[in-house]
Amino acid sequence: MTETPQNSSTVPSKILHVYTPFSARRRTPGTAPYSQRQKNRKLTAPSNESFESVEIFDYSGLLKKTWRLYSLSPLYNFKVNAQSFKKYARSLDASLTEDKCSFASSNGGSERSSFTVYKGLKFNADDPEAVQIQVTEKRNGGGSTIVLNALMFCVDIGDHPVPAAHKAHFTYYPVIMITGNKLRSNVVLNWLERHFDCHTSPLTFSNNDLRWILACCSTRDAGHKAAPVLLQYSLQNVCEGIKTIDCRFESTFCRELWQRIQNTSLSSLTTLKEDDVETFVGALESHLEYTMHIVFSKLTLSEVGTPIAYVSSQGKIKLFQSEDIYLPLHLVSSIANDKLTQFSLTQTKPVLNTSG
Amino acid sequence: MASVLTRSMSLESSPQLEPESPSKRRSSALNNAMSFFLQLDANTVLRGNVKFHLSVDQIVKHAMNHGLTREQITTLIKIIVHPNTKISQAIRTKLVKCLVPSSKVPQSAVVRVISWISTRVFSDPGPTNLHSVLLRWILLIYDYIDGYDQLHKLYDIIFCFIHSYLLLPHACHLLFLLTRKHDVKLFKVQQLLQLTRKVGPESCIIGLLTIYKVFCPHLVPMKLEHSHKVYFKAHDSTWRSTIQEIVAANQAAGDDNGLDTDRAEIKIRKEKAFIQVKSKRQKLLVPEPHSASEEISEETDLNTTSLPSDFEHIHYAQLDSFSAYLEALDKIEYPSQIAAALKDKKLQLLLSCHPDQIVITRLCLWIQHVFAFGFRNTDKDECEKYEQLLQMLLSFSQNVQSFSVVEGFLECSLPLWDGQRFTPLIFSLITCFKPSTYNELHYCVLDPLHRLFFSCDVYFKSMCITALTKLLHNLSIINYGNMSSQEEQTQQEGNKSARDATGDTVLNETHLPSSTLDNTQSILLKLISFLDAVIVAGMMMEDDHYLLQMTTLDFLELVSSLFQKCHIPLVCLPLRVIHRLLLSDCPATLARLCEVINSFREAFTAVRSSRRDAVTCDTTLANQVSVLHPTGSKSKGVDKFNGLLLDIMGMLWQGRLFQERSNKLESIFHFKPPSHLADKIKDNALTIYMGPAFLGLAYKFLKETQREDKKIHPLQIEPFKDRYLLFLERENFPEFKKLVSTNIKSRIDKTAHL
């Protein structure tokens, strides 16, 4: 059973110590591996006077729906303007009708797609405008229903994977979230891959990622009727017969815990360090271990829930509050971007060796 | 009877001809038959005309057995299409079946056929079966036409044939074979779609639309059913096989090969006609080349009925053959998904010839994303895909030298690698690594690798040493290429400036750019030092396993040849490894080590006589490198080598293991053995006749040379060392003799100095 460390400096380092003739060698400065770097994450959007901060956006279309998350590599030659959107819509329509899937509705309605700019998600001047893709099916009896809704966004990420010299040719959306039929989603993703030379993959979250999301999102104040903070642990490979264990905390309890850890007003908190995350989650887990005598710190999180968002390790997200739309979207964007920039082939060596 | 007599008399009365060869006789008979037909007119009665029927039979017989020449085909076609004769449709059809080429079919004949068919397409009652048969004939002999330029010009005429239901399937097939990008027009697509609505989605129309879609996807955006396994059915199989047999039989006579490349193109195009249905759910590991993005590019305007003149660029997916690819090399547009280059050698060649920074960035980002997100679990399918991707990455790195994609991959995956999965592939990727500094190499490769080195078994250690030796070799070759070109450039500049200054050509000393020289030498030197230390530690762990010894010797052989074979101005002695191997109990190891020492001696000698500055050093004092100038002054590296040489000769030959030396050169045996061992370890304990490595050989030598009943001891070999050297040479260890003859100048104990 682990005790909550009082001092962050005594948190054990995660370095694997292997004593060899070269262990004493110092690392190349500034190039410490990913796992050794202390990470910080933002909690609040950057203030930007050029934006019309008084403008209130309606995010109701995003809330209270389960979205599946996919990561995208940078799109090549993707233009955000009305004329291009028309071509894209026409082309996507052709792909949707070309696919011989059985999901075509029995009333034989035709499908039309539309591309629009989704306003209100540009929290940083470097972020591209979020783009929404909707597929609407017209029913024979009249009326139409949205059968697929997809949103490509990039919310305030740090390092950009595209070299600065080529940024004009690429548009980077780390994440696309989709709600709708899975087969149709695959058609849309394949269409993006074929036409914009990108690669898509389902976005999954590791235990560490979920801990970050849990810690960051539970600092938000969501009122008395807010959803509880959920820690769902998976026991699939541990115990036969039990899939998950759900542990719920009141959101106010978690905020009080944060208050004690930070010893400052949460509203003034703008970033969180990895040590803080370890402290918070460690405190919750040690409390659970003391209460239930189950060593939760050895288990893997499969889902975390907070008053503003629920996120599962399989790459699903559900948003609850418009006021705090920035934080969960920023977290998933950062996590996807961090994973991609880990494998940086372009930052260090874009130069051609023409004499080779 | 009378008629028979008449016939026989006519034969008798004919002048006696020289005996003809069978082929000439056949040919003349055929020509007679043809000329009979040519002389026919509208008034000639053919019913009951014996000569007519005999001529037909003659033509059929000749054609089916030997085929027709170009001229004969042209003549026969003239006969078939001639309107002013009473030849029935059945006979004409029979004659069409006789149009079997012996080798080639003249394009003019095909043009005549098409023009004849076109006269009936728009007139009542429309084309007949004969026209259909002729069109089928064109499809059968398509491969053997001697040119296609005129046929391409008649594309639009042939397109009109689709309006006839009888000619539709064959016309579509012919158009499929002939279509090129500028033949695809919107009005043609619209006509085909109209036809589809009228007659249904015939497989031949869908096939033609498919090839149109390949060239211009934006003109055919609608769905195309892929339920047909074959677009164009193969008609007339017997006729086809007859033609193929006859042409093949005649080809042995030495046909022209000029159209072999065209045949390859035709074959590729025909393969496209037989499209297999692919599973829609199956996502390929690496995409196929295609031009889908053209559909939505800014230059495309769907409202125009004709394509803009775009002969400046050709999409890669539209190239059917290697010759077309070579011709259009400067105009090729990359496919929409550049990741197709990972398994397409022609695209890799294109990237090497025309490296485009944006394209490379696209590829790197794709690879980056696949490795970061693409493999989420470790089940068998994912492992196979991962391995395939690594294989593609390796072959790509080997083929496209102008840029490398392995650095990022190795930097991220090596720290997490367990040393077991995909070991040969990962090591192969490591050998493709091209660092710009030693720090980069150490951080990306050496640091994670050395941890695995000390925690894995001897086989991993051996693979690791082999891979790093190969990396050293590759780095020396790459840097040699760069340095050679820079040397030449600097030399030319130096000579030019000398000429300018004095007006005469003056020989200047070459001065290599110091930054490049230092960087290359630094990387190689530090890599050698790294390997030197790591190998010794590894050998300690594995009790000097023979496999490690062998791989280490490969490393030493490379290092010793860096100056002479790779022309790197560096001679570095990996002293720790050499000292360790000196104590080996394997004669083969010691033999190879002697060869390495000889190599080093040659290298040091070559450095002195060379006009180039070179760095000589050893790994124990790698920071204290010194440059050996052509003036011949000694350097620390040379001193170290001299000391080593004296040790080896003293150890193996002279039996002076622990004796003090008059000079002050360092010695590894410069210590006093412990008192309890002082009596047991003599000065000749490690010689070639007393050493533990040579016991077996010494025994064999004594057994062969001494009496059977004599008590033998290796010490008895000492007076006969020279003969023993010959014996070792006979036992496939000539290196010892070479070492002694190179380094011991006389039989009176004089050691050689550099």
TrEMBL record, chain A:
Keywords: Centromere, Chromosome, Nucleus. It comes from the Eukaryota. InterPro entries: CENP-L (IPR025204). It comes from Biomphalaria glabrata (Bloodfluke planorb). This is Centromere protein L. It is found in: Chromosome, Centromere; Nucleus. Belongs to the CENP-L/IML3 family. Signal peptide: none annotated. Residues 26-46 are annotated as: Disordered. GO terms for cellular component: chromosome, centromeric region; nucleus.
From TrEMBL, chain B:
The keyword Ribonucleoprotein does not apply. The keyword Nucleus applies. It comes from the Eukaryota. One of its GO terms (cellular component) is nucleus. Residues 8-20 have a biased composition (Low complexity). It holds the Pfam family CENP-I. InterPro entries: CENP-I (IPR012485). GO terms for biological process: CENP-A containing chromatin assembly; mitotic sister chromatid segregation. Keywords: Centromere, Chromosome, Nucleus. Residues 1-26 are annotated as: Disordered. It is found in: Chromosome, Centromere; Nucleus. Belongs to the CENP-I/CTF3 family. This is Centromere protein I-like. It comes from Biomphalaria glabrata. The lineage of its organism: Eukaryota, Metazoa, Spiralia, Lophotrochozoa, Mollusca.
